Amino acid sequence: MNHPLIDIGVKLMHRSFQQDREQVVDKAAANGVAPLVITGTSLRSSQEAARYAGRYPGKLYATAGVHPHDAKSCDGETLTKLEALAALPQVVAIGECGLDYNRDFSPRDVQRKWFAEQVQLAVRLDMPLFLHEREAFPDFIGILKERAVQKAVVHCFTGSSAELKAYLERGWHIGITGWICDERRGKHLKELVRMIPLDRLMLETDAPFLTPRDLKEKPMDGRNEPAILPHILQAVARCVGKAEKEVAEVTTATARAFFGIG
Fold this sequence. Notes:
alpha/beta
């Protein structure tokens, strides 16, 4: 029995979906996963995501933002172009933006500058933020606090209990991925997910990445996709000790309200 779910984080414009993007969307819907929110991670992928989502009103939505890895490619026009995308009805959040001190693909001062700019844009437009943080918590929360951010989801949360408490205290939402299905790296997450009120929790695959390690039938190419979200729902429901149906209903209602999806 599949319960209706919304995948709040799918990198559907990734090249691994080039050949079968429409089938991936259809397969997700056949598994009860619809609508999908396509993650924009650079100006270009945000433009592509908005364009693609615009072809499927009510089925697909998109975010518009620049991931910290891509911050080094930002220039004077980036914000203007993001703001133009944000005006489109299918674009429902600013992001994926944030800080990543694990990989440092962009210099840290450049990451901070463009993260702060995007946060400011979201606050000005009164739009939710879709956030990324890796090994950068003090700077990350500092920038968000300084701008009094109200509406945010920390996507693919894998942090500590102190970090989780700090996010929840500020009224932010938490995105949980198939990381929770990883018996090596996801152990602490199985405990921490119980701390998250159901109405602050959202589910996501982060496809094509983070394929759940405990899948019985692994995808041939190792690619994750939104049709796998019910498997993540099962893992979360087990961890929080609640029925799948309840977790599905509440997290889906939460996602609809958060992104303003009818």
